[in-house]
Amino acid sequence: MRKIPFYKPPITIHDYLEVFRTIASGWLTTGKRNFEFSRKLAEYLGIEEKSVVLVSSCTAGLHLLFDAFDLKGKEIIIPAITFISPVEMALLVGAKPIIVDVDYDCITISPEEVEKKMNNKVGAVIPTYYGGNSYDRKVLEIASSKGIVIIEDAAHAFGTKVNGVKVGNVEKLGVDATVFSFYATKTLHTGEGGAIITNNERVLDKIKKTRLHGMDHNAWSRYQNNLVGYDITEVGFKYNFPDILASVGIAQLRVFEKMQRERKRVWDLYFRYLSDLDTIRLPKIRENTETSYHLFTIRLNTEMWSIDKLTFIKLLNDRGIGTSVHFTPVYRFTKYREVLKPDLSEFKNSEKIFSEIVSLPIYPSLSNREVEYICGVIRDLSKKYKK
Ligand SMILES: Cc1ncc(COP(=O)(O)O)c(C=O)c1O
Are 13-254 and 256-385 equal in CATH topology? Predict the structure, then answer.
């Protein structure tokens, strides 16, 4: 039987060579390859290098920003369908996560729900680029009219453009900060890692220190400049990014555009083979957005099926097709049911979406035949289990 994993990272000869070079240099932690990767990211995004701060994960980036934007004691508005990171980081800095419903079509934070939650305790809104799609930009108008900080969770959006502007260009897109994830399954990966982009000088100054214990000089700058000691000027974290991983990022960035063309090929094939099925819906991308093609999440028209989503997933898995679900609404997890005490009537869209969503494999090495096979299985199931 075929075995098609949900994800396979695109590894090329460049990854081996760049990692080899770093290891051979003898400097494994944060050092000059961090500078090189930051510079290349800035070039790709069309922004200044000083606005890029590499960190150990997107989660770490959110933590550093919540701390640096002084959100302790404030409310932070977060969409119900996202990864758990912004919720847990809000709690860890002593802020209150306020979870709001998402819009039904694009699964992104609903501006109407954000508006309803506005009050003078709100400190920040954290819109997620779901699967690479943009969120409704009305959220920006609502937040900026009230002076509320916008931190974009762009874990899925390296490669996304909004109105022709790359996500990460915080100035042109009118946001306070953007955080990328370079986790193993993301469009640009380093295995683990992330980057904060902001132009806020005070915040930049702080997070460049707090990502490494609040030190004024890290080991690389001490080594470079023959400095004997360091001072600690902030209470910090240990969220710096090692050079071994930066070298993977440098290698991946070199082939990024090519990989994106391959993701688009897979995306277009799914559309070609599945568009005519009335039992499912395919991802809907906002008109102003060019997606990063991070997720291909289909939706079951559940009223037309005699099986539920979990059975559908199991039947795909039985035929060797890996799937995933993005995401379980954050308030459904045991711990967060306890902490957030959700009123389910406020989450009608999220609940319905959760009963419908299945993410299919999408990655550069997924062949045309494999996509055909996946689509064939979905068509079979649709025929067999249509009410
Ligand atoms: C939407 C979203 N935000 C944040 C994260 C956290 O990223 P990281 O693993 O780099 O901390 C993820 C990871 O899957 C994610 O999907």
Answer: no
58 CB under 6 A from ligand 1? yes
Q: Say yes or no: CB of residue 260 within 6 Å of ligand 1.
A: no
Tell me the per-residue pLDDT of 262-283, one tens digit each, with 9 for 90 and over. Answer: 999 999 999 999 999 999 999 9
For domain 13-254, the CATH class is alpha beta
Reported as half-sphere exposure (CB side, CA atoms, 13 A), residue 248 has a value of 19
pLDDT of residue 44: 97
Specify burial of residue 278 (Cβ count, 10 A radius: 0-12, 13-18, 19+). exposed
pLDDT in tens, 40-77: 999 999 999 999 999 999 999 999 999 999 999 999 99
pLDDT value at position 144?
Answer: 92
Task: Identify which of 7, 58, 153 to mutate to test ligand 1's pocket (most ligand atoms within 8 A of the CB).
Answer: 58
> In this structure, which CATH number among 3.90.1150.10, 3.40.1190.20, 3.50.50.60, 3.40.50.720 belongs to the domain 256-385?
3.90.1150.10
Give CA angle at 211 (208, 217), nearest 5°.
60
Q: Which of 183, 211, 325 to mutate to test the pocket of ligand 1 (most atoms within 8 A of CB)?
A: 183
Q: Where are the domains of the chain?
A: 13-254, 256-385
Query: Is a pLDDT exceeding 90 seen at residue 2?
Result: no
As a 3-state breakdown, the chain gives helix, strand, coil percent values, each rounded to 5, of 45, 15, 40
82 lines ligand 1 (CB under 6 A): yes
Model confidence at 1: pLDDT above 80: no
Decide whether any atom of ligand 1 lies within 6 Å of the 57 Cβ.
yes
